[in-house]
Amino acid sequence: MNSIYHINELKMAFGDRTVLDVHRLTIDDSRLHILTGANGAGKSTLLGLLAFLTPPTAGEVVFDNVPVPWGSPALFRLRRQATLMHQLPYLFAGSVQENVAYGLGVRGMGATEQRQRIAEALAQTGLTGFDRRNALKLSGGEIRRVAMARALALRPRVLLLDEPLANVDHETARLLEELITSLPQQGICVIMTTHEPNHAARLGGTTIHLVSGRVVQADGAAEGPVPEADCAPARRIAASAVTL
To answer: Whole-angstrom Cα distance, residue 188 to residue 181?
Structure first.
């Protein structure tokens, strides 16, 4: 299995508060990885880092065997390989088709290929026929699916999902679960956050558990001193925290 990310001695701090402190982490390509942890554990911060949106305070991130060039114009090209979908996605005024086409247009893609990718992404998310629907009049589940279609239309190498299954109706959850589990077979590395530790077992993904910004291993051992009370949930999770 090829690895797509290598993280070494990484720290993320905001002021005097350290929100991530990861000694070493390797993430395999074309697999589903599930990040678990309590609120404030650092899950969303880690996603932002893996999307190349926020540079670390210290340490190194290697993507596809090349150190991430924070602050370099080359970072722009890396960002096109990783797409982040937020828990509360924002849709623009206009049609569903216009929303899904937005990123494609920004990348200068021709109209014919845009139409093909939009049709494929809408089919994947169960939204065929929604092209001309007003995006601002959709249900919560439909909004989540449009956001997923918009991300998939870009054909990213890495898809980062922040709580994609939270607060959606049963049908949307079922459809998204089936879609998410199918993506690694298409060569996409999927990294999603969740508060539910059973998602990894149900979806067949590999779990990494964060406690106070640190990776906690399957046996409950952490990469550094972690309060005993914080370690307890990790002992109940089969987590592969060193190689994902």
So the answer is: 10
